[in-house]
Every structure is written in structure tokens, then in C-alpha cells.
Design goal:
six-stranded parallel β-sheet; 14 helices; alpha/beta; 427 residues; binds nicotinamide-adenine-dinucleotide; Rossmann fold; Dihydrodipicolinate Reductase, domain 2
């Protein structure tokens, strides 16, 4: 009988609550044990602490992660960081300073310089930290990537990601950091591309990554147009084209400025076949010779699978975590270069934006007329929405050598937003 892996969780609300639910279930199966948890508003989570049975499970509860680590660091195998993006780096620093690895929620950070510091700090931990991109552990994904690497489908010619994930206006007011570019001088950069849909962007780089199974493609050049329809500081709609170091091009069209059902589709175009992967849906392989293979990707609990696999890594049963901080670098660089390329975040023309009230949910959505067509035109034909009626200049073609412009670009975007808000208030 192996000993349960000992865990601490920073936070209790938001997605931290989902980690508590998962860890409580895994504790019943003897896989893990929750040693401690903290939250600056711990009193607000009294009912949750009861539901999670913190008392009988003998969980230490703290107001802050620092005293929690001071009291419990000798009893911890890993600490989960499911907190606001801009707090990840300081929490990861404090945890790895004590030699403890972390399960850092995605995105680890959206600032490539900060990511470099986190990668360096991680070398102090006993084992590598995990970044919580949900879908790399999927068995069906790993099996398909093996087939890609074996050359069965021929060389990768390109790929597209389409993801329309409606978010109501309340999503952006649920905490102090949603949709923000910068807080107190620190990069946040919360967006559909950098946060909620980042899993799928990371997945696309995973498909194109070689030579090993756990490889992510390096980005060589990026062009992007960033837009907003919600009243937020950052962008809620991204059109991005990335030339990879391998020579092929990926296109991404993502938005939170929509209503109705969420859709997402990862497509990989190869010499001999086109692969379409829908999480929780269907995997389709359309061969150029006319054959089509279809299988279900099957039900998948990303959080549970990631905790189980990370415990297996910490027990020495598998050689590496699904995504390390270093593996996240291509995603963070791509996100940062998309901002540098776009230069500005442009408001989607007002006559295209309508406001929709979902009476059942009691929530307000925005909807952009022609969005699905703009996505299709971009992904299939390379037509940029700016030139097709959304009225903006093209994004610059930028390369990793332009990353030095990243912080200045983000500061300028935040300043432009403030100036527009002031002008709006004055007018
Ligand atoms: N893997 C996934 O599918 C998934 C889904 C949703 C969110 N996330 C990620 O989880 C993270 C948190 O997102 P969220 O929307 O739940 O954020 P949130 O703002 O709701 O915060 C989460 C928790 O952090 C706590 N917290 C805030 N400041 C703290 C501090 N100083 N010390 C300790 N705890 C603190 C909050 O009280 C809350 O309990 C983000 O990185 C997000 O991208 C991942």
C-alpha cells in the first residue's frame, strides 16, 4: 500500500473550489491527502469547508499562503496554485524556495520574462512543477500524437483552432483581474487566448511539436489582430497567425464576444489526412484517399486526470509531468507576440455588436454579427477581419526578436484604454 501524496491548496473559491472537490474525491480513494489550505477570505467559505469535511480530515486552515507554508512545509509533496494569474509567480517562488513542487494552474504567467524567472526558480524544487493545461494527459490525444510522429499522416502542412466560448458580462466583473491588461504595473493580460481557451492554443502547439511526444512547436513569426466587444481593458477576440520554426502555419480564431453554445475545434492538416479533434466529442481522420476514421474522444475529467498523473510522476511511476513550465514557453511567447503584432486592441464596429439577455441564466451576453463568417474566412482563406470590414490596420509581422517591445506595447494598450474611458466620461 503506497502512502497518499500530501497536498496543500492555495485558495478556496473560484477554480480552487474545483480542486478541493477533486482532491476530496481522490482522498477517499487513498491517492492523496489534503494537509492544508488557505484563503484571505477563509470565513466566507465556511459552508464549503464543512462540505469538504475539513474538520474530520484534519486539514490545517490559514489566511495566507506564507504562514501555511511555514507551518506545513515539512508535510507537503506538492502545493496547488489555482489563484489569480498575477499571483502565480510569487506563490510558486515561495513554494519552490522550500524545495516543494507546485501544480500551477494555467496560464503559469502571461509575461515571458516572468516565465523565465519561474523556470529558473523551479530548479530548486525536488521535482518539476506541473502547469495545469487540462488536455495533454488525454489518452486519445497522446495516441493520436504518436501516430502523427510516426509519419502515418505525412508531414504537417498547417493547422487551425476555432473556439467561440460565450462569456457574459458578469464573467468580467467576478473578480478584480478578469479582462485586465495590467494591475499595479504588473502584467495580467487575461483574455480568451491567454486564459480560458489557452488549453487549446497549447494543444495546437503540442500537435505541431516534434521530435518527442512531449514537444511543443517553437514560434518563428506572428501576425495578429486583437479586438474587444465587451467593456474591458483587454481583448476578447483574437485572430492570430503563427509561422512555426518547422515551416508550417497555424491560424487561431478565438472569442468570448458571442452567445449560445460553446464550440471549439482543433484541426491539423497533414499531407495525407486532415485530423479534427473535439474535446469531449469526436476525433475524425479524413484521409485524402476518401476514407474517414471516426472515434469518440470520450468523457474526460481533466482536473482528476491531471492530479492522478502528477501523483504518478511524484511517485516515480512516470518520467515527467504532462506540461512543465519550460513546455509552456511557446504558448507564452505566442500570446505575447500576438499583443506586440496587434499593437492596439480595436473595438469591433458598434453596428455589428448587439446585447443579448439570457433570461434563463439571468445573464447578459454580447454578440457580433458575422463573427462565425469572419472566423471561417480567416481560418480557411486567410482573410483578416480588419481588411474585411472591421476597420483596422494590419498587425505587424513580428518574431521572437521583437519580444523586447512586449512590456511597452501592453503599457500603451492599457494607457489607450484609460484615455478612451476618460474621453467617454467627458463626452
Ligand atoms: N484548468 C482549468 O480548467 C481552469 C478553469 C478555471 C480557472 N482556471 C485557472 O485557475 C486560476 C484561478 O482562476 P479563478 O477564476 O478561479 O480566480 P479567482 O479570482 O476566482 O481566484 C481563485 C481563488 O484564489 C483565491 N485568492 C485570491 N488571492 C489570494 C491570495 N493572496 N492568497 C490565497 N488565495 C487567494 C481567491 O480567494 C479564490 O479562492 C487561474 O489561473 C485560471 O486560469 C483553470
Amino acid at each position: 500500500m503506497t502512502q497518499p501524496i500530501r497536498i496543500g491548496i492555495v485558495g478556496m473559491g473560484g477554480f480552487a473550489g474545483s480542486h478541493h472537490n477533486t482532491v476530496a474525491r481522490l482522498e477517499e480513494r487513498g491517492i492523496v491527502r489534503l494537509v492544508c489550505a488557505c484563503d484571505p477570505r477563509r470565513a466566507a467559505f465556511g459552508a464549503e469547508q464543512q462540505a469538504w469535511r475539513f474538520g474530520p480530515r484534519n486539514v490545517g486552515v490559514f489566511d495566507d499562503y506564507r504562514p501555511m507554508l511555514e507551518a506545513c512545509h515539512g508535510d507537503l509533496d506538492y502545493v496547488v496554485i489555482p489563484t489569480p494569474i498575477q499571483l502565480h509567480a510569487e506563490m510558486h517562488d515561495a513554494i519552490t524556495f522550500l524545495g516543494i513542487p507546485a501544480y500551477v494552474e494555467k496560464p503559469p504567467t502571461l509575461d515571458y520574462v516572468e516565465l523565465g524567472r519561474m523556470i529558473a526558480a523551479d530548479s530548486r524544487a525536488r521535482r518539476s512543477s506541473l502547469v495545469g493545461f487540462n488536455y495533454i494527459v488525454e489518452k486519445s490525444r497522446l495516441a493520436l500524437k504518436e501516430r502523427l510522429l510516426s509519419g502515418e499522416f505525412g508531414a504537417i502542412r498547417g493547422g487551425t483552432l476555432s473556439a467561440l466560448w460565450p462569456r457574459p458580462s458578469s464573467y468580467f466583473t467576478r473578480n478584480g483581474w478578469s479582462g485586465r491588461l495590467v494591475i499595479d504595473g504588473q502584467v495580467v493580460l487575461d483574455s480568451c487566448f491567454g486564459n480560458a481557451i489557452s488549453h487549446f492554443v497549447h494543444n495546437m502547439l503540442f500537435w505541431a511539436g516534434a521530435p518527442g511526444l512531449y514537444s511543443w512547436a517553437q514560434v518563428a513569426a506572428v501576425r495578429a489582430e486583437l479586438y474587444r466587444a465587451h467593456a474591458i481593458e483587454g481583448a476578447d477576440t483574437f485572430f492570430v497567425e503563427a509561422d512555426l520554426a518547422t515551416g508550417c502555419t497555424l491560424r487561431f480564431a478565438l472569442s468570448h464576444a458571442c452567445a449560445g453554445a460553446s464550440t471549439s475545434s482543433e484541426t491539423v492538416i497533414c499531407e495525407k489526412a486532415v485530423l479534427r479533434y473535439a474535446v469531449g466529442g469526436q476525433i475524425e481522420i479524413a484521409w485524402k484517399d476518401g476514407r474517414t476514421e471516426r472515434t469518440a474522444s470520450g468523457p474526460f475529467d481533466g482536473l482528476e486526470e491531471n492530479h492522478i498523473e502528477y501523483c504518478r510522476y511524484l511517485r516515480g511511476e512516470i518520467p515527467r509531468p504532462a506540461t512543465t513550465l519550460e513546455d509552456s514557453r511557446p504558448f507564452v511567447v505566442l500570446n505575447d507576440l500576438a499583443h506586440v503584432s496587434s499593437g492596439t486592441i480595436v473595438a469591433i464596429p458598434a453596428q455589428l455588436v448587439s446585447h443579448e439577455r439570457d433570461e434563463k441564466e439571468q445573464k447578459d451576453y454580447v454578440s457580433v454579427s458575422g463573427l462565425a463568417k469572419a472566423v471561417d474566412n480567416f481560418l480557411s482563406r486567410g482573410v483578416w477581419p480588419g481588411e474585411a470590414g472591421w476597420r483596422r490596420d494590419k498587425g505587424d509581422v513580428v518574431t521572437p526578436s521583437d519580444l523586447g517591445r512586449f512590456h511597452g506595447t501592453v503599457r500603451a494598450m492599457a494607457a489607450a484604454n484609460k484615455a478612451a474611458a476618460r474621453a467617454g466620461a467627458a463626452g
